Structures are given as structure tokens and as C-alpha cells.
Amino acid sequence: MDALVTYFGAIVFYTLAALAVAGAAGVIGYRNPVHAAMSLLMTFLAVAGLFVLLHAELIAAVQILVYAGGVMVLFLFVIMLVNVRTLPTEEKYVRRLLPVAVVISVVLAALVLVGVWAAFRAPAGPVAALVSVEGQAMGNTEAVGWSLYRDYLLPFEVVSVVLLVAMIGAIVMGRKEKEGRT
Amino acid sequence: MITTTHYLVLSLILFGLGVTGVVVRRNFITVLMSIELILNAANLNFIAFSRHLGDLSGQVFAVFIITIAAAEAAIGLGIIIALVRLKQTVQLDQVNVMQG
After folding, report:
1. What is the pTM of this model?
2. Which candidate from A33, A47, A144 shows the least CB-CB separation from B59?
3. What ipTM does the predicted assembly reach?
4. Chain B residues closer than 8 Å to A36 by CB
5. Which of B28, B30, B32, B87 is most worth mutating to test chain A (most A CB atoms within 10 A of its CB)?
6. What residues of B are in contact with residue A165 (Cβ under 8 Å)?
7. A84, A98, B14, B67: least surrounded by Cβ within 10 Å?
8. What are the residue ranges spanned by the domains of chain B?
9. How confident is the model over A41-91, as pLDDT tens digits?
10. In terms of DSSP bridges, do strands A136-137 and A132-133 run parallel, antiparallel, or are they unpaired?
């Protein structure tokens, strides 16, 4: 029974991982931006499933609400507003840049790997810490909420200012220019 | 048995695909989507380490990253709207003139 549970987890992980990678490949492969956006949506949902596997249920819900619900609608809105079909199309990729892209991504991935490796040697901690507050068992949402509002209150407030700035910036840039100005 | 390493490798693959998309594609909208992929890979790393170390800070920072990603998408798409209004294109290699 225990082996079955482990096996099940592996099947779910590999399925979701394959979906995520296929979606990511679709984002850079599809010519039509709407297809690329749908592909990206698949990646978002698969990654949300992986978050559930990692005992981060709150983040999985936020991922679906914010990414699949908010960011994706924003992307589709802009694609429709811009009406990509009427714009002159270019070639799909810049082919001569492909080797450069591979080199850059491998080098950056190697740099990330170095950083990750340094952190990875720390000993593994208990899962229980993710669902408890001061030793008391609670839900993941409550635990993250406690950590967010007790230990990370200042970054939380700063991030809200960032959101405000982004909102004002988006409004200013999306607004029609007045007559007489370039 | 699925270990943290599996998640880290998956995160690296997503990150590499995202960077490749940013460099190779010329469509501004697709480039923004590739940046979202990179941020998602970072999130996966945070959550995997949060699980590995039994520390909630990773999940808190994942919330911050999601917020930043939403702000970035809003700003980027605002730029696209302004760009289309000004030059009638979303192809990045046609945007080579600075206009004051």
C-alpha cells in the first residue's frame, strides 16, 4: 500500500511535469499568440498541480486565481485589442539567434544550479513545519498567513506599493494621447 | 520516489525554455509570456526548497513573486498598447527608433 502511494505520486509528478514542459515548449513554438497563451495556461495549471504535490495548497490556489484568472485574461485581452492578424507578420524566429539562445540559457541555468547546489546541502526539514503555527497544527493557509503578517510585514506592504505603481503606470500608458502632443 | 532534485531539474528546464523564448522570439507578447515562464520556474524552486527545508519563507516569497509577475504583466501589456498605437507593430526588431 505504501509502495502504491509512492508510485502514484511519481506518476502524477511525471504527468504534470510533462504537461508543464510541453506547454512551455508551445509558448516559444506557436506562431499564433492565442495558441501560445493557451499553451502557457497549460503550464500554469500543471505547475499549480505540482504546488499541491509540494504541500503548498495556498500557493496553488493563488497561482490559479492570479495567473490563470488574471494574467491570462490580460494577455488575451491585449491580443484581441491589438488584433495581431492585421499587423504585418515577421518570420517566426530569428534562426541565427537559436544557438546564442541555447548558449545563454545553458550558462544561466548552470549559474542557477551553482546557487541551488549551495543551498541544497542543508539538511532536510520536517513537512509539519508547513502546516503548523508555533508547534500547533493548522492549515497551510493559516500558517502562510501567520508568516506573512508576522515575519514579512514590511515586504508585504512594499509589494502593495509596487502593485499601486504598476496600476498607475498601466493606466497612464494605456490611455489615449491628447491631441497636439506626439 | 520523487525528490527535491526532480523539482529543481524541472524548474531548470522551464527556466531554460523561458530564456530561449526571450532571446529567440521577436513578438513582444510572446516575449512577455516567456518572462512569465521564468518567474514560474523561480516559484517552483522556492516551493521545492520550502518543502525540502520545512520552512514557510519560500511560500511567502512565492506570493511576492506572483504579485511582481502580475505587476510586470500589467506594465508590459500597457507598453504593448502604447507601442501598437505609435508604430502599429509588436515585432521587437522593428522598434529601433527612440522618440522623445
Report:
1. 0.85
2. A144
3. 0.90
4. 29-30, 33
5. B30
6. 71
7. A98
8. 28-91
9. 999 999 999 999 888 889 999 999 999 888 999 999 888 888 766 655 555
10. antiparallel
